[in-house]
Amino acid sequence: MQNKADVIVILGTGGTIAGTAAQASDNVGYTAGQLGVGHLVAAVPALQGWPLEAEQVAQLDSKDMSHAVWQTLAQRVAAHVARPEVAGLVITHGTDTLEETAWFLHRVLAPAKPVVLTCAMRPASSLQPDGPQNLLDAVTVARSPGARGVLCVAAGQVLAAADVRKVHGYRIDAFAAGDAGPVARVEEGQVLPLRPWPQAQALGLACVMRDTAHWPRVGVVCSHAGVEPWAVEAALAAGLHGLVVEGTGNGTLHQALEAALAQAQARGLRLMRASRCTAGGVVGEVPGALPSAELLTPAKARVELLLQLLAASA
Ligand code: SIN
Question: Which residues contact ligand 1 via a Cβ below 6 A?
């Protein structure tokens, strides 16, 4: 019987961290989600002897992430967070949609324990994989006294779910936190806090327990030079419930798209306006403008609008 919270649960979902290529020199032509989470843990000698539990929740390339996997993941995270002997969780995940999963778990659960997503840009079969160090750093953060909330640990940085975004398609330091910067760094097994751990109000697990086949349908369109409003018309025709628009600059929209969106809004489509810039977001309130996604990336804004629609219909 354990009398203190020291167990770390590691949930595997796939990704490049669990990927393999035919050649050790190949960091591009690999298949994600090949190795089980137990294999990833076993590859890090420094983790041996620590009170760890490993559980495979999914095994996929995160570009193929589904709402059903998110629902299962939220359930498993909530169940483990509620166990008194568990200090924190680590989730091994693909880099490509990590920020979406992070925002989903943050908004649904806002856990008081650390839930640390980690990943890799190079497959496990690489000559120099980044996954083992990231996994060790993630467990170090999950065991760190006072750590809480949904976090991402990669390349020595600890980034909050609200801030993390993938900013590079190849480099090992593929994530950034924009103007907010990291919450902490991990150096040689030490967690160096830079600002307070994230805290938030949870929507609650009940909000996402409906059959995912009946979740609101939310898409993303982009404003660009010469845009035609066919995507908005297609969204209405397909029966979507919500649409995020990736605006230019501070969330501004091409007038042709804005007119189509205004009509769609009048017909009941819920809208959210984000920025397609790689840093920053939508700042300030403009009278009459579509609802702002503020600092959320368009991909996270889609998750946010989905959750708002789910919460409103719960
Ligand atoms: C994935 O997102 O699952 C593949 C790409 C990666 O993890 O870097």
Answer: 14-16, 32, 61-63, 94-96, 119, 121
User: Above 60 in pLDDT, residue 1?
Assistant: no
Give distance in angstroms: CA of 94 to centre of ligand 1: 4
Residue with tokens 């908004």: 107
pLDDT in tens, 208-235: 999 999 999 999 999 999 999 999 999 9
Q: Are 11 and 89 in contact (CB under 8 A)?
A: yes
**Each residue's pLDDT tens digit, 78-92:** 999 999 999 999 999
Residue 4 confidence (pLDDT): 82
CA distance 143 to 161: 18
Which residue of 60, 63, 125 sits with most ligand 1 atoms within 8 Å of its CB, as the best mutation to test the pocket?
Answer: 63
Let me know if 16 is a catalytic residue: yes
Is residue 172 in a domain? yes
User: Domain residues for 306?
Assistant: 216-312
Q: pLDDT class for 314, splitting at 50, 70, 90?
A: confident
Cα 226 to middle of ligand 1, angstroms: 32
Task: Give me the helices (H) in 35-189, please.
Answer: 37-42, 67-81, 98-109, 131-142
The number of domains in the chain is 2
Could you tell me if residue 162 is inside a domain? Answer: yes
Tokens of 46: 């420094």
Question: Do residues 85 and 133 share a domain?
Answer: yes
Q: Is residue 204 part of a domain?
A: no
Q: Do 143 and 237 belong together in one domain? A: no
Instruction: Indicate if 223 and 186 belong to the same structural domain.
Output: no
- Closest atom, ligand 1, to C-alpha of 14: 3
Considering the entire predicted model, what is its pTM?
0.97
Q: Report, as an integer, the average pLDDT of 249-260.
A: 97
Whether the Cβ atoms of residue 112 and residue 148 lie closer than 8 Å to each other: yes
Catalytic residue selected from 13, 16, 97, 118: 16
Ligand 1: centre distance to CA 170 (Å): 10
User: Rg of the Cα trace of the chain?
Assistant: 20
